[in-house]
Amino acid sequence: MHEPVAVRPPGRSTEARVRTEVCVKDVDAVLFDFDGTLWDPESEIFRAHAEIFLEFGHPLPREVWSSVVGTIGFDLWTHLERLTGRPVDRRQAQERVRVRQRELLGGLSSRPGVHRVLGAVDALGISRGIVSNSTREWIARYTRQCGIADGWRTVQCADGDRSGAKPEPNLYVAALASLGVPPERAVAFEDSPSGVRAAKRAGIRCVVIPNSMTASLDLHEADLRFESFEQIDLPGVLSRKTRRGKPMNQAVSAKPDPVSEQDVAGALQHYYYLPDELRVVKGEGVHLYSEDGRRYFDCSSGTFNLSLGYAHPEIVETVREQAGRLIHVTSKFQTEPLNALVSKLAEVSPPNLTRVHLKSASGSDANESAVKIAQVHTGKSDVITLFRGHLGQTLGMIGASGAAFRRAPFPSHLPGVVHVPDPHCLRCFYRQERDTCGLLCVERINDFIDYASTGRVACLVLEPISGNGGNVVPPDGYLQALKKLCEERGIVLVFDEIQTGFGRTGRMFAADHFGVAPHMLTFGKGLGGAGMPIAGILTEERLAGVEGHHINSTFGGNVLAAAAALKTLEVIGRPGFLENVRTIGAYVLDRLRDLASKVSFVREVRGVGLMIGIDIVDGAGRPDPRLTNHLAELGLEHGLLLRTSLYGHGNVLKVRPALIITRQEADEMCDLLERLFLSVS
């Protein structure tokens, strides 16, 4: 029997090494179906046959095709003759299909994530083989095309022998015999009901990864189901002690550890409100892993906090080193990380913003302190904010937010707040067209000041691109006109860049992207890089001097967070980093706009850099929050973590991955979104 070797990659943690060793002891062989599983030609093969059916005046229904997936000997031409009532030249039809298939399959490569999973199998020292109804010639040709021709310890094919093909277990039995592995020490990856049945009848645990043609078929016999190879955390899947992924039914899924489940139930009863059912255990880059082994692509980078993704190694090391020296100290003292961070923030901010306040603990806190600073320096009280604006969670900022449902439960609000229409050109409050509107959404703010305020407006606070409000990007000239209005009327212009700051738009700040420098700028979220909480305010020199006891917070200026923020700015400032954000952002926008053309429920895809929103509508073109929330929930089944606008009251899916995303990861994200949208369509 093959005796696997436990491989210990350098630099991995003890926990990771233990998990690897456990998996190697549990599994000696991983067997893969080829067609549809490692490689997905079914749609193109279907298309080649369907073209001939259409020439005879009959469509080839997908359900007819899907019913014969994985079988040998079903004669489609006999089926076509029954439909038409006349003979079909089988030889000619089959030759035309063969030529057309070659054309369609020429550029088709392996399914996303396959190379990573095969590499992980090899790294674990486990034998791998192919078990397929296809012919050896077919497999040899297309494994070479996919770049996965090497490394197979066995290849078992039906080669046209119907009696030995799936759903019979013969091929799997032969593969196990050739490797000298008992069935209980093997795992099979399949895509179709016939393949799953063959593996299970041979006594092998089976993971199913359906493709576009088999996703709707009955796959309940499999032990686990994943929608793609990208979701798979291989050590978790292979371990016999845990059932990773999405159990297909109770009969084949492992029973949960009663102690663990009891502990979880005990904890849940004490939550003030229940969290999501998903239990996560680790994050890496743009991916988050749940305790059941599934891998999710996080489209919202935490809550837009993780500008450098999960567990960025440089942030982790910086935090580890700083924690060994000093974690926190009262903010009245100087520390090296805080001094360095203040200097760096002044360097990268718009030139007029020369003062840095780091004594805020959250974005909400920073925004509220900015309002206080404006009120003290102007001697005025009122605050102007925009429809759909978010601004924060404190009582003051909830009152200033631009959504009535957020203010509704509270009898008292920040006094003197005036809400004005936002520059949402798709749904213009004034029913204007941008080419001829004359930026009425700015001009009419004068009327709100004259007739809806006390006439004593201290500041105007807005997000340059609305975050929770639906990713509304202002039209050209809007922010310039807004600043001009504020300066004419002695109003402090505050940009809330808590979501847009530190590279999200492909520039250090959205202010840089739009070429408008505000009088104050608040920041937070992404500055922590990998999740360290930090926030603050940048102001003009003239706005300095408000006493600390009015605007300081207990954990503002935390030393550990400052060290992480300083490293974050270093990474973002490296040559090519922001350029890559702009390039990948433009690529994602193009792909999502192409996807929008394939479905009826996307009204618009809009954004700048990697701050993108997908506007979801109903059949009449109206905002559809119900469908938006449904897509976000269904996204979990497709390996996607998605957030919606206005806390589920809005109709925009927010696409804001970590700024470190690569082109390959951008394709992975867009592919998953496409599968999600097409499954609903």
Automatic annotation (TrEMBL):
A Pfam family hit: Hydrolase
Domain of life: Bacteria
Gene3D superfamilies: Aspartate Aminotransferase, domain 1, HAD superfamily/HAD-like, Putative phosphatase, domain 2, Type I PLP-dependent aspartate aminotransferase-like (Major domain)
InterPro entries noted in UniProt: Aminotrans_3, Aminotrans_3_PPA_site, Class-III_PLP-dep_AT, HAD-like_sf, HAD-SF_hydro_IA, HAD_sf, PGP-like_dom2, PyrdxlP-dep_Trfase
Keywords, in A-Z order: Aminotransferase, Pyridoxal phosphate, Transferase
Named cofactor requirement(s): pyridoxal 5'-phosphate
Signal peptide feature range: none
Keyword Transferase: yes
SUPFAM superfamilies linked: HAD-like, PLP-dependent transferases
Keyword Metal-binding recorded: no
GO molecular function, one term: pyridoxal phosphate binding
Protein name: Aminotransferase class III-fold pyridoxal phosphate-dependent enzyme
Species this chain originates from: Kitasatospora acidiphila
